[in-house]
């Protein structure tokens, strides 16, 4: 019999059942008398003695290379396997034809055939028996499909009546195909009623699935939604597990005991170009890794045809061969035939060679891998859903290109193979036993899709299974109602300024969040997400009241328990404190920001981080949030290249706004004052969560707001504040006091740079008699995008009246050169350069940062107040509007070459 205990399997046979029974009875008696500690001690001593006596035992983290679930423990398979096999063949054919037809002359857009071919059984068992749709009383499951398997999902949707032949023929031709096409991979933004989760950027799917399962629990514990009957499934490839992101968060799933999560890893032993572990065994490696991290591991290695052989393996010779054969050899076996397998696998040991003497070469060829056996896969899924206390990973051995014929199956190049020859098509059709006549295969570029008819037994069975499980999967729905947003009063604290107190914009934002927590309508939906920097950002004040989420509560007494701002954890905590883990934090942000669609419950994430480690470190995850259409706030705290300069090169962020500008879904702002933050957050809440005639369910955008750690007095909101300009990206903050008969200039700045512009305004007036207006640029990016929209409209219809870019309009009536500065690279200021009328000069913090005082760093980069003065005088000289030599005099006067002469900004620069 096969023993399975705590996941440790061995193919052993009981030669004396009576003695075995006595040993077990003795153990039970000892356990009852001495308790678990005594039992554990004795078992460890027994293991130690076995080692001393050279008794071979499997390592605790790996088991033999056989199925975890023994044959006699497999549950009854509840479906009609014959019918399911038939329409699985229809799907296989249509998935392959979808990709093949996309290679027709004049198109040739690519695609992948072999991934779905290897995993069709894995998906169909889920579709037919496990995955619950959104109409299920429990709310439905979330399934992260392997990106390269998308043709299979499209092929199934075609049989279900959700996609047409025209849709399939538009694969990868979303704009050019008549009537529109369908995207290459799971892209919710491109197919918003179908796909839920973008997964093809490898490594993000595993992380996002873990945090989706965790956020499901978070919503349940917070009382937002009952998610207790929802399960998260993630389908991954064995090659994908080499991505550090794929493995980097598995400890979180184990620590939180996420038994609502199942990984299914398709171990077809191949990457894109070759074997995953040609000299090793990827299944064994992954088993050890996940088991060591605290996961429940189920292996599905061999199909039912192997059961009889394993039963005959009395002395373990076959299991030994399985254990010692490298993956590269297993791949080669399936690229040949039964005779090759007989000689090169079974023939390596006379005992195993004898086992298969009564099998023909064809019989040997039909010894399937477990991932192609419905019963074995069903048993694994069933066990995973019943397991409690741990997440489960199912390691399933398959063949890449399974069923596609000898030209594809198991070949190193199979991932890149997209076309079939006439012979391939005929062989594939025959192997699937499809009633497609030869005449329909004459046009090798347009073989037909196959559909047996909506009233056929197969289609009716398929639809009935989905109806019983709660509807179609995948499916994305947006049913969340707009939130009732807070009134103006909540923003008053920032509009009033800070008086004589000096505070950084980070602290101004924290004050606003504190008041948002108190709002009766949205307070319980605000979710701070912080990667171990809460105290740096002054958010430790939330610990006693909002508390840190922990599904186990707080089982210890915090070392600072007597302090007012003690570390507090709770099962109902509102703060997701992620540790030193920006990638995991973005995965959390993804799940929270999309809860409006995934769960019909809009949440308001506020992900705040050390800004250097935002878009630079996790840009791929931020991009995927755009694909998944997340909504929420991303706060780049400790922003700028010189405000945190004491921390040095690796912490000085002068480029995040440039990186954010490449992500179309991010609305980016760089506010200087608290009242600017108030208006930006208010407008963000309105656009994302308030609903409008154009966007009744809110806009699918994210807000990126940079916050600084430099303290200064926050002014009161001006009485004549141009709120519309502030939100569009620029408003006049400080007009020149006296302009009559003076040279004119316009000073543009953002963030902490606004104070340098005000300094330059004062110096220009008192030292040089130049009248300069100061403009606060809240968003260089939004100004640039507005102008680009105008330019695009003009290009499409050159004769139409398309308006004027906002930046051009507001500066059209001004006088003098325009000088722009900020704590960012000059490329960010230059985003608006093409649309600034007249002369434009951008100053910026280009190059690497370094450790020094704020003032010295600003002088080094030539972005401070005196640098703006010199740049202004120089521009006026070039225009002939100021006497020659003044700029050089100013450079000497303000000692521009001496970093020690810098005075702009407060001292310091620590976090």
Strand content: 5-15%
Strand order of the largest sheet: 12-9-13-14-16-15
Individual helix count: 33
Sheet/helix structural class: alpha/beta
| Biggest pleated sheet | 6 strands, parallel
Poorly predicted runs are 1-10
CA-CA gap between termini: 63 Å
**SS elements, strand count:** 22
Global geometry: globular
Helix coverage percent: 25-40%
Let me know the average pLDDT.
93
Rounded to an integer in angstroms, the radius of gyration calculated over CA atoms is 33 Å
Chart the SSEs and their pairings.
Blueprint: E1 2-5, E2 8-11, H1 17-52, H2 81-101, H3 114-129, E3 142-144, H4 150-160, H5 165-169, H6 204-221, E4 232-237, H7 244-248, H8 250-255, E5 261-267, H9 282-293, E6 296-300, H10 307-312, H11 317-324, H12 327-334, H13 338-344, H14 350-355, H15 361-365, H16 374-386, E7 392-397, H17 422-432, H18 457-468, H19 492-495, E8 502-503, H20 505-517, E9 526-530, E10 548-549, E11 569-570, E12 576-577, H21 582-593, H22 595-598, E13 604-610, H23 615-628, E14 632-637, H24 656-661, E15 666-669, H25 674-690, E16 702-706, E17 712-713, H26 723-728, E18 730-734, E19 743-749, H27 753-768, E20 770-777, H28 780-796, H29 806-811, E21 818-821, H30 826-829, E22 840-842, H31 854-861, H32 865-878, H33 886-893
Parallel strand pairs: 3-4, 4-5, 5-7, 6-7, 9-12, 9-13, 10-11, 13-14, 14-16, 15-16, 19-20, 19-21, 21-22
Antiparallel strand pairs: 1-2, 8-17, 18-20
Helix pairs in contact: 2-3, 2-4, 2-18, 3-16, 6-21, 21-23, 27-32, 32-33
What does this structure look like?
- With 911 residues, the protein is α/β, with parallel strands linked by helices.
- The chain has 33 helices and 22 strands.
- The protein has a six-stranded parallel β-sheet, with helices on both faces.
- Helix 30 links the parallel strand 21 (818-821) and strand 22.
- Helix 3 crosses helix 16 (374-386).
- It starts with a strand and ends in an 18-residue tail after the last helix.
């Amino acid at each position: 019999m096969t023993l399975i205990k705590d996941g440790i399997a061995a193919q052993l046979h009981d030669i004396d059942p009576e003695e075995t029974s006595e040993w077990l009875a003795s153990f039970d008696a000892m356990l009852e008398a001495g308790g678990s500690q005594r039992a554990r001690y004795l078992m460890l001593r027994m293991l130690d003695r076995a080692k001393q006596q050279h008794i071979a035992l499997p390592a605790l983290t790996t088991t033999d290379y056989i199925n975890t679930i023994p044959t006699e423990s497999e549950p009854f398979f509840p479906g009609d396997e014959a019918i399911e096999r038939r329409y699985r063949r229809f799907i296989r054919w249509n998935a392959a034809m979808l990709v093949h037809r996309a290679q027709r002359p004049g198109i040739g857009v690519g695609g992948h055939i072999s991934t779905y071919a290897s995993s069709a059984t894995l998906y169909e068992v889920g579709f037919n028996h496990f995955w619950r749709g959104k109409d299920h009383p429990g709310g439905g499951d979330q399934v992260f499909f392997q990106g390269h398997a998308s043709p299979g999902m499209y092929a199934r949707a075609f049989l279900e009546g959700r996609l047409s032949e025209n849709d399939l023929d538009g694969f990868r031709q979303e704009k050019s195909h008549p009537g529109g096409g369908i995207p290459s991979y799971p892209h919710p933004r491109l197919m918003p009623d179908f796909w839920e989760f973008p997964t093809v950027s490898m490594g993000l799917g595993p992380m996002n699935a873990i945090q989706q399962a965790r956020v499901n629990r978070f919503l349940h514990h917070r009382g937002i939604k009952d998610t207790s009957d929802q399960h998260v499934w993630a389908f991954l490839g064995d090659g994908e597990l080499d991505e550090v992101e794929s493995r980097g968060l598995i400890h979180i799933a184990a620590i939180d005991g996420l038994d609502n999560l199942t990984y299914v890893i398709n171990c077809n032993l191949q990457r894109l170009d070759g074997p995953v572990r040609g000299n090793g065994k990827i299944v064994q490696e992954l088993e050890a890794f996940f088991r060591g991290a605290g996961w429940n591991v189920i292996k599905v290695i061999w199909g039912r045809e192997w059961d009889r052989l394993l039963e005959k393996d009395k002395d373990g010779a076959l299991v030994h061969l399985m254990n010692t054969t490298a993956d590269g050899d297993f791949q080669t076996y399936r690229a040949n035939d039964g005779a090759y397998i007989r000689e090169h696998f079974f023939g390596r040991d006379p005992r195993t060679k004898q086992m298969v003497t009564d099998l023909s070469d064809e019989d040997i060829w039909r010894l399937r891998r477990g991932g192609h056996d419905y019963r074995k896969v069903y048993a694994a899924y069933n066990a995973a859903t019943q397991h409690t206390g741990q997440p489960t990973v199912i390691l399933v051995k398959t063949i890449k290109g399974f069923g596609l014929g000898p030209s594809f199956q198991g070949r190193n190049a199979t991932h890149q193979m997209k076309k079939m020859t006439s012979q391939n098509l005929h062989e594939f059709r025959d192997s699937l036993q499809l009633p497609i006549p030869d005449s329909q295969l004459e046009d090798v570029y347009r073989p037909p899709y196959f559909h047996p008819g909506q009233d056929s037994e197969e289609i009716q069975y398929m639809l009935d299974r989905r109806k019983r499980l709660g509807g179609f999967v995948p499916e994305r729905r947006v049913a969340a109602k707009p939130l009732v947003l807070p009134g103006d009063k909540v923003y008053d604290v920032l509009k009033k300024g800070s008086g004589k107190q000096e505070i950084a914009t980070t602290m101004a934002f924290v004050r606003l969040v504190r008041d948002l927590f108190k709002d009766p309508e949205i307070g319980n939906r605000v979710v701070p997400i912080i990667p171990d920097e809460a105290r740096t950002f002054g958010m430790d004040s939330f610990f006693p009241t909002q508390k840190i989420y922990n599904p186990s509560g707080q089982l210890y007494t915090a070392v600072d328990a007597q302090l007012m701002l003690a570390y507090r954890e709770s099962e109902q905590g509102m703060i997701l404190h992620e540790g030193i883990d920006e990638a995991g934090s973005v995965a959390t942000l993804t799940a929270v920001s999309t809860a409006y669609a995934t769960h019909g419950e809009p949440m308001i994430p506020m992900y705040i981080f050390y800004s250097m480690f935002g878009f630079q470190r996790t840009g791929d995850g931020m991009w995927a949030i755009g694909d998944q259409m997340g909504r929420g706030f991303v706060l780049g705290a400790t922003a700028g290249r010189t405000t945190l300069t004491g921390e040095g090169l690796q912490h000085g962020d002068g480029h995040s706004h440039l990186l954010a500008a490449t992500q179309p879904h991010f609305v980016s702002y760089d506010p200087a004052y608290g009242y600017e933050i108030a208006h930006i957050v208010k407008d963000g809440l309105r656009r994302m969560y308030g609903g409008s005639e154009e966007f009744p369910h809110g806009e699918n955008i994210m807000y990126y707001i940079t916050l600084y750690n430099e303290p200064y007095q926050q002014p009161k909101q001006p009485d004549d504040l141009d709120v519309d300009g502030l939100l569009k990206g620029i408003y006049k903050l400080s007009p020149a006091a006296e302009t009559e008969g003076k040279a004119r200039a316009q000073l543009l700045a953002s963030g902490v740079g606004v104070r340098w512009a005000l300094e330059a305004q004062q110096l220009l007036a008192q030292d040089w008699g130049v009248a300069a207006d100061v403009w606060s640029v809240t968003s260089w990016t939004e100004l640039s995008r507005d102008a680009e929209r105008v330019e695009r409209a003009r290009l499409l219809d050159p004769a139409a009246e398309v308006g004027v870019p906002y930046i051009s309009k507001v500066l059209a009536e001004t006088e003098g050169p325009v000088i722009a500065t900020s704590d960012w690279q000059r490329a960010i200021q230059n985003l608006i350069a093409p649309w600034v009328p007249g002369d434009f000069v951008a100053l910026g913090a280009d190059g690497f940062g370094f450790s020094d005082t704020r003032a010295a760093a600003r002088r080094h980069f030539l972005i401070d107040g005196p640098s703006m003065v010199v740049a202004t005088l120089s521009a006026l000289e070039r225009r002939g509007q100021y006497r020659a030599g003044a700029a050089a005099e100013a450079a000497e006067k303000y000692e521009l070459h001496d970093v020690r002469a810098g005075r702009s900004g407060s001292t310091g620069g620590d976090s």
